[in-house]
Write the structure tokens for this entry.
Amino acid sequence: ASTVSNCTAGLHLSCLAAGFGPEDEVIVPAQTHTATAHAVEFTDAKVVFADVDPISFCLDPEAVEKAVTPYTVALLPVHLYGHPAPMDELIVIAKEHNLKIVEDCAQAIGAKYKGKSVGLIGDIGVFSFQETKNMPVGEGGMIITNNDELADRCRMIRNHGEHLLDGKPRDYITNIVGWNYRMN
């Protein structure tokens, strides 16, 4: 887990860590906050909107399957209003097409999908601590992943591209392009 300045920064950082870039397409739900789409656009990847289920307002797997092209690199499901997206179906699609999954969990802290915590079902999950969310601290966010490589890239990108090692002094060497996305 890595804290970040806010969920929007965390989504952007996660998209960068996952390697999205020009000519890539990322499928997001048509019903979401602009930050979800902007995070993809900030990597120069193309946002592809897919329809949502009329009950949960989360990605509709049939719409996702129709939206996949040879340029699709990832799915960015949003667990909206605490309703988990249909992750089993989305994982099948992701595996079939070799896609990454970045979960937008801004409104779903504590939500579970079939006994699994959201944010740890896909490759990476991002949460919000903004004052209108269900675990507010005023501002901030958190990224979680079980992938050591993604976790390391996230930590570097959020700290100006510097690789900070536990127990060692800061060396001020920039390894990759990064921003100041640290939580204050």
